[in-house]
Amino acid sequence: MFAKSVSFTGQFDHETQIQSVPQRLLVLVNMIINGLNIKDQAEQSTQPVLTVAQLLMGNAYKQRRKPKEPSTQIYVKNRQMPLSIYVGMKVHSLTRKRQLVDSLHELGLSESYDSIMDIKTSLGNNIINHYSNEGVVCPPQLRTGEFVVGAADSIDHNPSSTTSIGSFHGTGISLFQNCTVTLPNPREKRLWETFQIEKQVKEIRALPSSFTEVKPLISPTNMTAPVGLSEDTQRNTMLLPSVVREEKEWLDHVSDHLTQEINKESALSWAAFHASKCHNSMLPLFRDEASSFAMLRHCLVMVQAAIHHVNPGQTPVIIVDQPLFAKLKQIQCGLSSPMQQVPVKN
Length: 346
Known about the structure:
This protein is α/β, with parallel strands linked by helices.
């Protein structure tokens, strides 16, 4: 138990929790929680068992402290348990309270506030280094060779504020893939292979300038008429059977859950069912408003660069709402560039 060294890998999957605890400790905790019956011990990796085992692992010491020593909990550096890191990061993300995180640390339930900040900063710097190495801001969750669809929209935070001091009006870009492959993603694997926690690093490195710098653009005036669709394209119904099949899959999914207990993983609504079948990733937010022509052109460029990186040869596709759709069509018709070939959907 004391000889086992555990370091944070940047992920909180179920397998990471199992590997962080010795097998003998898991068996012991499982016997205490589930009893000595062999049938009750068939599943040793339940979350309550893993939680108690990680708490024991993270708070154990070889030598008892002297009574005069302070009671502040100090974790062993080479035994940072996934549970304590998750609790600290979750509480800090929800409350932003240092005192609350340190209180949980004294109770032995979380890492210290300073450790949590080191981990968060290291996670941010790791993904930025990944962007710099690939030469493009493209989320590592996207799979190579799969069709990608981009979407852009405005981001409004705290719009009901009377003073607007804490409000934020920016732009968000999302990328979607409808993947059915369950194999490990090589791009995501390369991201975590080089992850290390950087101590005493308080600042996150800057994103590539090609992503953060939005070039100015004057409102297009010389607009050319868009090219209309041919009659054959308008009457193309080859995709109709696949669409009907997908709708039937949703109806069958709802029918199968009528007699089952419904939980947050059921995904019964039409939107939830189809969203559960695709992978979505969000690029870093922009402070510029989405309604500006410069920002909209930048959205086209960023989506085009990300799609060409993971799926070379694909025609980039971007989806926006009606007001942004009208402005994007103006940009496409007013500029003679490859962006005229990017389909814009409303």
